[in-house]
Amino acid sequence: MKKERMGVGMGLNLLLLVAMVAANILSLYHLSSLRNHSPPSTTPHTDPVPDHLLHQLHTIRATISHLTRIRSATSSSGASSSLPPPPPELLLYSRIAPIASSCSDHPDLLHLYMNYTPFSPCPRDSLSVAEPLLLRGCHPLPRRRCFSPTPPKPLLPSSLPSHPFPSSLPDAAVLWPPTSPCRSFSCLPSHLGFDLKSTESSRFLSARSALDLPLHQLLAIANAAGAAPIRLGLDIAGGTGTLAARLKLTLNATLLTTTMNLGAPYSEAAALRGVVPLHAPLQQRLPVHDGAMDLVRTGHAVNRWIPVPALEFLMFDADRVLKPGGLLWVDHFFCKAADLDTVYGPLIARLGYKRIKWAVGNKTDSGGTKYGEVYLTALLQKPIGPPPLAANIVSGIGKA
Ligand SMILES: *[C@@H]1O[C@H](CO)[C@@H](O)[C@H](O)[C@H]1NC(C)=O
Ligand SMILES: *[C@@H]1O[C@H](CO)[C@@H](O)[C@H](O)[C@H]1NC(C)=O
């Protein structure tokens, strides 16, 4: 009897979840416009939401409230022990995840984003709408029925770089935003990762401090630790794809680079170099199957500005995609010195990885000295065998 009750409770939860997801998707597409009582004046004409969709949505909404009523009724009538509350992980996730709050919290942007004319060119608003949505954790809904803008002239094969560290990239490969002050690769500041011939071509080759991990060291460690060969990897927030380019040249390895186009055409640059740019925000589940990667690196954009719960999700997703014995390279992570021992060190320790390298150094730029920040560069190895018991791990989040 008890077992049956529990089955019913779990089934109910599952049904609720499915209904909520369905309603979310539908409402994201169709109701964000309704929620905005005063549509922006740039909208010349808003089609009414089709009746059948509204009907579907109302049915789903009614189902949800019905299920919720059943659930609260049964849980308040003495059956509470057999009907578990929503799993805390689901509640935590729904605060961060794309499907729930991160998209619906920004109905104005969503409305702008989905306000396009089907079967015609998509609006050229990636910098003003799509990237801001991505940055807020809402992976934009696909615009499924418009044509994504492309540069006007085809790129001649001869203008493609023959090497991933060329002296220049063809400007014609990018549809530069008309409002952008910079409409050529040569005008981008060199520290952004577009100076391929000099700055980028020397990266990862030598160490200026203990915070650097040059490739010859990485490879020696990988060999000694049984993590070689490095064939597949993921560079999270990898800019223009320099690590992927370097490992392709030295190891024939294939690295995916997650990158955004915040203020500069990082994705286009990586693609021109012949490495794959994954256009994904840091909140997103990595689109790679479990245990597929030999190496995961997190770049400079992974730092204390990421909310701790989202960072913990990111680290555990890195763990998910790493194979047993794979290497996690936390490269120049920065945080306030005091937080390293109390927040971020314990967060990383929860993975139960072996510390191969753990170097901490003062961040000496103006922001770093102002906030007393330190850099951490760590190389960690995923254990082979069963993970540690949850009872031995004290989570820093989810309690609050
Ligand atoms: C990479 O693969 C190519 C083609 O198989 C081969 O010729 C080349 O020697 C390899 N390079 C390295 C560094 O392994
Ligand atoms: C790092 O910064 C701290 C606090 O600002 C200071 O006490 C310490 O001496 C610095 N360490 C180095 C190696 O410069």
From TrEMBL:
- Asked if the keyword RNA-binding belongs to this entry, the reply reads no
Domain Methyltransferase type stretches: 234-329
Sorted alphabetically, the keyword list is: Membrane, Transmembrane, Transmembrane helix
| Hydrolase in keyword set | no
* Transmembrane intervals: 12-31
Look up the domain of life of the source.
Eukaryota
For this entry, the protein name equals: Methyltransferase type 11 domain-containing protein
Organism annotation: Dendrobium thyrsiflorum
